[in-house]
Design a protein that fits this description.
Elements (H helix, E strand, L loop, with lengths): L7 H4 L4 E3 L2 H6 L11 H5 L6 E4 L3 H14 L3 E4 L16 E4 L6 E5 L2 E5 L4 H9 L3 E3 L11 H7 L6 H4 L10 E5 L7 E5 L15 E11 L3 E8 L2 H13 L5 E7 L19 E8 L3 H10 L3 E6 L16 H10 L3 E3 L2 E2 L7 H10 L3 E2 L1 E7 L2 E6 L2 E3 L3 H13 L22 H10 L11 H4 L3
Parallel strand pairs: 2-4, 3-4
Antiparallel strand pairs: 1-2, 5-6, 6-10, 7-10, 8-9, 8-10, 11-13, 11-14, 12-13, 12-18, 15-20, 16-19, 17-20, 18-19
Bound molecules: flavin-adenine dinucleotide.
Protein name: FAD-binding oxidoreductase
Organism: Floridaenema fluviatile BLCC-F154
Amino acid sequence: ITPNDWDTSTLFPEIETITDPVQVTKLSQDYHTFSPILQPKLAGKTGDVVVRPVNEAQVIQVAAACVKYKIPLTVRGAGTGNYGQCVPLHGGVILDMTRIQEILWVKPGVARVEAGVKLAQLDKKAREIGWEMRMAPSTYRTATIGGFIAGGSGGIGSINYGLLGDRGNLLALKVITMEDQPRVIELRGDDVQKVNHAWGVNGIITELEIPLAAAYPWAEIIVTFHDFMTAAKFGQALADADGMIKKLICITAWPIPSYFVALRSYLPDNTHAALLMVSETSLEPLQDLVAEFGGKITYQKLAQDAGKGFHLAEFTWNHTTLHARNVDTSLTYLQSVFPPDKSLSLVEELYHHFGDEVMMHLEFLRVGGIAVPAGLQVIRFTTEERLNEIIHYHEARGIFVPNPHVHILEDGGRKTVDVAQVKFKEMVDPYGLMNPGKMRGWMERA
Ligand code: FAD
């Protein structure tokens, strides 16, 4: 049976449904378009209908109907994922969660929210009592919390708290199952990992309990350097400065700063840039650190002006790639995590080895308690073979590459099948209707 045989008006009289093909096609897309490899693979893949429930009871109705008629279901937040996570490979229902967006409560250090809450909305609410999200992607103004947990990995704040998969960064999840009689299941403790970063293949997340961080008055700063390795070592030193409070350390090698059109007056030609968020209380020590490394502060915005002008964070993480591609659509990117090494010798080797073909973009984050650079290098794409060669060159040197040019969960950052996630899917999605074609462990199970 296909959704064409499925009369949405009688099945969901109270649920908003979109059938206009132009809208449905739009709501079947995400930002996999950053990848020249994924673009042709996912071209033309669309759902048949978009359903926009407003509460859990309506989600259960949609789940029950999809199970009854064996219709594939792809959950969607804001659709900002980069790996085609919410592009439906086999048509069916797109379940848009953005109308389920209540902040249920915020207490010191923890919040409970519905899955469609936008990250910026949660941050704003938490700040009313002096707290904020521990980490957010650079898409925080549009992305949903459900989509971040199911499809993201970390971001601004990861220098303090590591990645979403680290124990303690997600406290609880509520999911709706796709069984004959859909159930509501609450997962707490280590059990949250069964659904964390599972790309919506094993349960519809409706609520989450998220730990918060103490909110500081964040200043936004640009520092420029004449030498890239000095900029990178400055980034490592700031990351390691335990007495200094920071939230973002992004280092970009020229010519990447030339792509930041709105920032150009702060980025002289041929300089390498550090884009930072540091607590105002750490601004004086920051000046000393900048002086030690011979950098120059070209821009500074205090917390009271946070809402004015541009948001520096929206030039970092994968927004760096976005700005680069706005100037030159042939550019793409890589993701990598360097092994701990305070001298940054691998960064230096690769910077010189690839030159402008692989432009260095580093984001510092904590991995296992140690501050390391993660690369979101901007790449001048030529062929798939060359891209793979570049990836292998990194891997051969012990650099971990969560490949952003694949649309299968395990082929990206995970590398191996997560047995607990597959087992959970067997229970909650026995017909394999959720986001089919994305989980190798499910497709290849015995
Ligand atoms: P979507 O793209 O809508 O969904 C992502 C995945 O989650 C899909 O598989 C979907 O099926 C699933 N899903 C969504 N909601 C639910 C739910 N309620 N229940 C079950 N499954 C669900 N990511 C980072 O981690 N860090 C970054 O800094 C970052 N920067 C980015 C910058 C740019 C310019 C772009 C385009 C992307 C970036 N991303 C980043 C990727 C993405 O924006 C984030 O991961 C974001 O949090 C995804 O949220 P979303 O609501 O858009 O999710």
